[in-house]
Specification:
The structure holds 2 protein chains of 2 kinds.
Chain A (H helix, E strand, L loop, with lengths): L6 H19 L25 E8 L10 H9 L3 E8 L6 H13 L5 E5 L4 H7 L7 H6 L9 H6 L1 E2 L2 E2 L2 E6 L4 E5 H7 L10 H11 L22 H4 L20 H15 L15 H6 L5 E4 L1 H12 L9 E5 L13 E7 L6 H11 L2 H10 L24 H13 L12 H17 L6 H15 L5
Parallel strand pairs in A: 1-2, 1-3
Antiparallel strand pairs in A: 3-10, 4-5, 6-10, 7-8, 7-9
Chain B lengths: L2 H49 L2 E2 L7 E2 L3 H8 L4 H30 L6 H13 L2 H11 L6 H8 L14 H13 L3 H10 L4 H9 L4 H28 L4 H6 L11 H11 L3 H25 L13
Antiparallel strand pairs in B: 1-2
Classes of the chains: A alpha+beta, B mainly alpha.
Amino acid sequence: MPETRTRREFLRLSMLGVASLAASGCRLATFEGEPTLSRPEARATLGDRRVRIRYMARIGQSETVLYSQRLAEFQDAFPHLEVKLEQYPVGANARDYVAKLLSLQAAGTLGDACWSANLGGHYYFFAERGLSRPLEDIIDAASVSLTAYIEPAINALEYKQRIYGLPLKAHANACFIGYNRDLLERQGVPEPSADMTLDDWIDLAEMLTEHTGSQNSPSMWGMMLSTGAALLDNTKPFGGEAISKNGTTSQINSPEVKEACRWQYDAYHKYKVCPIPQTISGMNEYQLMASGRLATAQTGMYSVGHISALASEKGSVPRFRYWVAPTPYGQARKRANTIIVDALSITSASQHPQEAFHLLQFFTDKEAGVQLALGDGVPGARADIYADPRLRGTHHTEDDASLYAIFQSIMSEVNPFYYPKNLRNIELFTVYSQEIDRLWRGEAEPTDGFFDKVNAMCQKILDRDMI
Amino acid sequence: MTASATGRRLDQKHVMRRGRRAALWGYLFISPWVLGVLVFSVIPMLASLWLSLTKYNVIQPPTYIGLDNYAFALHQDEQFWPSLLRTVFYTAVTVPVGTTISLLLAMLVNQELCGTLIFRACYFLPTIIPSIAATLIWVWLLHPGIGLVNYLLSGVGLPSRAWLFNAGTALPSLVVIGLWGSVGGSNMIVILAGLQGVSQEQLEAAELDGADAWAKFWNVTFPAISPVIFFSLVLGFIFCLQVFSLAYVATDGGPSWSTWFFMLHIVRNALNYFEMGYASALSWVLFMLIFGLTVLQISIAPMWVYYSGNLRR
């Protein structure tokens, strides 16, 4: 009689089988060994050093343009180095990217090189908390001169008198008035100029705004202003600073900042030349301008590539000529702009800092800077880029040589970036967007009480301990 | 000792040995699940309890600070109480309204009419749409300028609203989005299953005794499905108090903090402000709130939940 198996025996055997399979899939963690080389013939010229550099990059950002051509050039120039490109999501204010790096740090698997920026404060946070390493020793050993980079960018990357990264690119935030040249010509309105004032801009916008639709949805808006962290820019023409130079005092209720906010409030609610943010939410200045509903907009170098692509697309939107002027001077003889710098840093966990520094240099040299400019418009942080002939006729603006001349003139007088001493930038910007943006939406009025209340909230953040 | 007593003792030992062996196999079979709960739930919870007593920014080792995080939350954090109250408000509206609508839908689709199956499928469809995708669609539907909702409202002469971009209407808008995605889903299905278990004999007996529709519902149907309603409420409170993705995707906590929920406050502190220790403390506050509320619901359940075979109080 054949032997029958019980269900319990069957289950036992199944479990043993599954456990055996699982055990066979496990193996001891091993060192990955020597990295492969990009060119076999290079092995003959190598010493014993062949190194893999892990570069933690951002997905889908403007520097992506470097990862095809420039990275290949790097591999050719440094055959003994292999770059492992790891790309992570960014999120608003780079929060996803920073969270990823913190996770890698906590797990002890941080790579060799990373991106950071000054605006969100994480460049300084990485420096303060030892995620990135200072570069002076490597810079001195390599006899590298930082004078090739523009001075405001290097100044912005100095933290406690040390430098923790090389500037990948730099711009002046929302420093332009971008406009539809064809539209202004049709309306017989003079173009914005470099010496116009803020009130001139309001007058120009009034000439262009057409309230043929409902009051909250005109057929044409004359201007659009940046909000949120752009407060840092827009207070400067009035001589105001949202935060003190040493980063310990909030100055939201200073007379200059109040005047700046009231000017912007009037643009929305008194002159009605500027769309209230909620009516256009989800649409940016590129789309509004391309659809013929916006004449001028406060924007930055980061928009040039996008809007010029829209302006030149065949079939989907009418073609129009796009041009820019610097944001106007205010009574303080300053324009609305702030130096914003993206940096490449070497992590303190890197076992190959010298090799990683080669990558930093390669991605921040003139050629890389030109490639960045050919991408979305923001060039590298070097003055020798602006006059490169390849930048002419690229972004379908009237005259790209003049475009970068305008940009260069802005960068020559760009305002410094002041940030909280305790590096709680994101917390502070959250208050700006949640509270001050109420003015633009019409949910609050720019009274002294309003500014005192918001200032108290900001000061509370600045009084906290280091992040 | 007699031979029979010895024999009985030997038998008992044999039975106990077999029982222990069987128990060991049982423990072995449940060990993967137990291990998973320990590794992925219990140990992280204990770790977060420890971290809640520290200042920890992930990059550097945690520094013990005692109950400072809890003190800061209760007395100094400007968004602690508002975000908590906002979350409680969202839950207090969404759960009862959602359960009521689910009950009504379940009663509707419990009718043996032609096409009922199609309606069941239609009501269930929102549940199978990923919540992020659904939220993004609603963001566009509720857009002040080009959204379909305002277009339809203006078509019938009603005023349009800024919905998600006005502090007064953002939270109610999220309540609507949350209800849309949940009322026809598992809530409705579970209640429907409960309705289909209601005793027809009792309903007929009630009808014979002269009970009208409401009397039948209140005295026969509702007690019969009260365990299901209770289950739905308990889970509803637990999930709604942890509302996060709606606000994260649709409004990012704005405008003017109006949708800054407690869970969003935790995530911001943890991942954006680098206050992992403080975020852990906030998480434990939320856990204690949910735990306390669940215990409260269970303790008052005998007052209104009726299990068949028990007398109704």
